[in-house]
Design brief:
The protein is mainly alpha-helical and 563 residues long. The chain has 24 helices and eleven strands. The protein has helices at residues 3-23, 56-67, 88-91, 99-116, 122-125, 138-153, 159-176, 179-191, 194-197, 217-228, 235-242, 249-260, 265-276, 297-317, 335-341, 369-374, 383-394, 409-412, 422-430, 433-446, 480-489, 492-507, 514-526, 531-540; strands at residues 32-34, 48-53, 198-205, 213-215, 330-333, 352-355, 461-462, 465-466, 470-473, 476-479, 559-561. The strands form five sheets. Strands 2-3-4 form a three-stranded antiparallel beta sheet. The chain has a two-stranded parallel sheet with strand order 1-11. The protein has a two-stranded antiparallel ribbon with strand order 5-6. A hairpin with a 2-residue loop joins β7 and β8 (465-466). α22 packs across α24 (531-540). The longest helix has 21 residues, at 3-23. The two termini are 21 Å apart. The relative contact order is 0.11.
Length: 563
């Protein structure tokens, strides 16, 4: 059997075994040993206090940043399951990898390694010439793999790890009679290691609090980079960690300000809002083509991009008030969306800035087709889904699931002329004691969006009947999407929600410290609700790097693998 196939598979099996152990580290107090094809040497390190699986975007960004944008990543990624009412960033803490998922990652790793060391790219990564290109060269392999391993594992390789990968390179060079093929084998092995596939967080004693632990420098670098740039830390950030700059408050602040001021911060901001607003739902969004002939693949692909461009224009380019994200009329438009919004855009223009008219009733994110289509059914709009999304995503107010025996017949009968509008059809639920509790908190903020159908296109009537867009939130009455946007913008629940989500996104767990969230929100308000400042506050907050008590209940853990 081909060595280039079997050795990475063996490393992948080790990665899976180690991953499963790491995922259960909170319930064990002794080191665990995993063996796979004699492929790994014993690795003992600092105390592991947490781990988060890379998302697909983070994996792709890491490969692009380390090896170049022209390195192709082809394959299927297993999705990370989102815990109820939490971020995917929190779900990543408990995300495992199935055997079939590992097979996919193994195939991707081998393809990436092949590209990195092909004739076109090898000169960028191999700083030496082997003594003989047809045989192993340990010193040249060391000079090649050590810097790559540091970037991939987000920390320096130990001598035992480096010896392991140099050995794999040598084992591969022999039967293939190619030094480069040996490097491919070693790199593919690194790419299926849990130290790459997971952000493994390690701790050190906290000098400011006796008996407490905090993230060490390398783990801080990873946390910062994935939070602010949604990618792996670069060499400069790892150098800062090695120099102790990330545990010094003044130097940490300077580093964060530099990172937030970088153009790469837009990538991080997009990732944060994609997580907060459940953008994974776009992957499953489908509409009835008979009812909505304008809804095609091009429109679907443009919907999340329009939302993200609106967000970054308001919060990043303009450094604007977060609350205005719900009232601004400024957005972006391209040709596929032009048909939906009935706005003329030529194909040659690409994405162009656009401002809705005052009479359009389109305000902020809630007036965009992306939000309106995502929270609708395949063939009709849904005030309840939209209202629930506003409560849960923008106000952080969980809404219970409906009982299993609810009768939706009346609501679904959109052709019933006796009940022509959604408001009339929903009356059956708002008057039913079993349903009324939830519908009274979702429908009054979903019905004001009924001027927009199931794909977010404007309509003045439904079944030839006028649409009543009156609504209410927190005892305040209003009308239409404009009124709804202003109500959300004036609600402290909205700013408290994004504050708590920013802290959760950084740490990978929902914050249970309500007082801390309130303190951050007050500082957020004092800074004019500028999201850039909120992210800076969270990234420089000492509590962001403290170790949660539940992560310290176990004895010091080691990842131990035997050869």
């Amino acid at each position: 059997m081909n060595l280039l196939r079997t050795v990475p598979i063996g490393i992948a099996a080790t990665a899976l075994a180690t991953t499963l152990w790491l995922a259960g580290a909170a319930s064990t107090s002794s080191p665990v040993h995993a063996e796979a094809n004699d492929a790994q040497a014993l690795l003992a390190g600092p105390q592991i206090v947490g781990m988060r699986r890379l998302t697909e975007a983070q994996y792709r960004n890491a490969i692009a940043d380390i090896f170049g944008r022209d390195i192709r990543v082809a394959g299927r990624f297993e999705p990370i399951v989102r815990p109820a009412h939490q971020l995917i960033a929190s779900g990543a803490r408990s995300a495992a990898i199935s055997p079939s998922g590992l097979e996919q990652l193994d195939a991707m790793a081998r393809d990436i390694a092949r590209q990195v060391f092909d004739a076109r790219h090898r000169g960028q990564f191999v700083p030496c010439t082997p003594v003989e290109p047809a045989v192993a060269d340990a010193e040249c392999a060391r000079r090649t793999l050590a810097p790559l391993g540091r970037l991939l594992f987000r920390r320096p390789l130990t001598e035992r790890e480096l010896a392991l990968y140099i050995g794999i390179a040598g084992d591969g060079a022999g039967p293939t009679r190619s030094f480069d093929k040996g490097l491919e084998l070693a790199l593919a092995s690194m790419l299926v290691s849990p130290w790459f596939l997971y952000v493994v967080e390690t701790a050190e004693p906290d000098p400011a609090h006796s008996g407490a632990m905090r993230l060490d420098g390398n783990s801080r670098a990873a946390r910062l980079s994935f939070m602010l740039w949604n990618s792996t830390p670069n060499a400069a950030l790892l150098d800062a960690a090695a120099a102790g700059k990330l545990t010094d408050q003044a130097q940490l602040t300077a580093t964060v300000q530099h990172m937030v001021g970088s153009p790469r911060f837009e990538q991080g901001l997009r990732a944060f809002f994609s997580d907060m607003l459940l953008f994974e739902k776009f992957d499953e969004l489908a509409k009835d083509p008979v009812i909505y002939p304008y809804f095609n693949q091009e429109v679907l692909q443009a919907l999340p991009e329009q939302m993200l461009r609106t967000i970054t224009t308001q919060l990043l380019d303009g450094d604007g008030d977060y609350r205005e994200l719900f009232t601004t009329r400024k957005t972006w438009m391209n040709r596929p969306l032009g048909a939906l919004y009935k706005v003329p855009v030529s194909a040659s223009q690409g994405w162009v800035p656009y401002e809705f008219s005052a009479g359009s009733d389109r305000s902020g994110l809630l007036g965009l087709a992306g939000f309106l289509a995502m929270y609708s059914h395949s063939g009709r709009s849904s005030p309840t889904l939209r209202g629930r999304a506003i409560r849960e995503l923008l106000l952080c107010q969980p809404v219970p699931n409906p009982p299993g025996n609810v009768n939706f017949t009346a609501v679904q009968d959109t052709a019933n002329k006796a009940m022509p509008t959604a408001r009339i059809r929903l009356d059956a639920h708002t008057t039913d004691p079993v349903c009324a509790g939830c519908h009274k908190i979702t429908d009054p903020i979903g019905l004001p969006l009924e001027r927009f159908d199931g794909i977010g296109a404007f309509r003045a009537t439904e079944n030839d009947a006028p649409i009543d867009v009156s609504g209410a939130m927190d005892d305040a009455a209003f009308s239409g999407a404009d009124g709804l946007g202003k109500a959300i913008a004036s609600s402290q629940d909205a700013t408290m929600c994004v504050t708590s989500r920013a802290l959760e996104y950084a740490t990978g767990r929902p914050s249970e410290n309500g007082e801390l969230v309130e303190q951050l929100e007050r500082r957020f308000a004092a800074d004019g609700y500028r999201l850039r400042k909120l992210i800076e506050m969270v990234a420089t907050l000492p509590q962001t790097y403290e170790i949660a008590p539940e992560d310290l209940k176990t004895a010091p853990a080691q990842v131990a693998m035997r050869r």
